[in-house]
Design goal:
heterodimer; A: 15 helices; B: 7 helices; 0% strand
Amino acid sequence: MPFDIYDFSSFTGWIDASLRAAMSPFWTIFTEFVLLGVAFLAFYAVVGLLLVYAERRVCAFMQCRVGPNRVGPWGLFQTVADLIKLLFKELIHIKKADKILFNLAPFIVIIASFFALAAIPFAKGLHAVDLNIGLFYVMAVSSVGVVGILLAGWSSNSKYSLIGAMRSGAQIISYELSVGLSLLVIVVLAGTLQLSEIVELQRDGWFLFKGHLPAVIAFIIFLIASTAEINRGPFDLAEAESELTAGFHTEYSGIKFAFFFLAEYMNMFIVASIAATVFLGGWMPLHIGSWDGFNHIMDYIPPFVWYAGKTAVIIYIIMLFKWTFPRLRIDQLLTLEWKYLLPINLFNILLMAFLVLMGWHF
Amino acid sequence: MDIMFYIFSTIILVFSVLTVTSRKILRAATYLLFVLIATAGLYFLLNYQFIAAIQLTLYAGGIVVLIIFSILLTSHISQSFEPVGKLKTIASGLASVAGALLTLTVLLEHEFTASTKPPVDVNMESIGLSLLSYERDGFVLPFEVISVLLLAAMIGAIVIAKKSEEKVTNQENNKSL
């Protein structure tokens, strides 16, 4: 069994070859699908739990508290206990809700985040589907998740839910634009949409540094807009505990609520992965131009550690946003997008196209 | 991979029927979403990833979200359509059967010959180049015409949404009164 932490393609290739030797092509593909599905499900659960724990610790750190510290070492099992509690909770029936849509909505939200997870390169050779149009695909499927939120709000038959859903709809539709345009700046620089190629192109330096000023502007805009797109504070008007109880998921309980909760954290993880892949080189180690000795030392750290580290840093930044800034009003939110971010973004793309045409980038 | 084709086609057929027969408008919109996503799945099956992603962003993420959004603004959960009358059911059933027969006869009569040309590599670069090329097989004219159309639609939407000066001042007067 070849196992190389620097390049997983030999490992996945070995799995494929040994399955092919054991059974017919149809069952090989079927088994691989099942294996992949189980792997992603497990990954989803583990990352979700870790992120909830991290959020509580970061929140506590910002508020000069300790945070969860009783269950297990450093309170690590607190979220596991919480999850078990959520699983056992009663599912409250809403009599006047639209039953089908009410039950369907959490699944749409969670499936949309699964779609996006498929295209993310975790390490060399650890990449479920390497689509020709990877980045575009991620943007496309992440726009489906809002349907679940809208359905949840409407089918609950509650005014809080409906207002929450309307807010989140307006918010996601407008901020999707900025997310797309800020990624487009890097696509102009890279000249490709394929995520594996985008990572490969950052072998001699991350796009954040290679693209000069426009790339930095795009990175900042991406951070702001994606925080808004995943409905997190300071853009969490859709939930706004103080005014809407819990926004679009007010009427949900037990495991269905857990689905929304988990999907929110997974969306944060996906957004951070995209930022890490597109701006910070994904699993590519930190390389500086022609410093061969330095680059060689950096190569000793396995790619998935680089990937996880970069993603964790961005997740930390997004969490700091939530616990630092006060919540925006809906008009402030829309003004920020349409009057500031969008014009800056459009100008930024022009600037980047000019830079690329003149060949001023590294 | 035939099995995937059958799965997607079943989803498309079942949910298309449900879309038109459902009496709750938001349910119909959701079923429409499934139809559109399954269609994107068919495109992925054909290895035409670009058009599949376009299908997802434009139809599933754009149009269906707008439809749902406008339903949220205008309709209440207790509303549902009246059941359709018998005459209408029979008439529309006949019309759809006639349409299906016509399509089927044309499809079965036509002799499909597999192309012997080598498969074209559909990457973003060639799509972009042919979209903006003004030579043979270029699409720059439709591209520009569509952008003018979109601009006109945007200006129209702004004009409709913008309140006229008079109305605004009237409302302000009313408020102050």
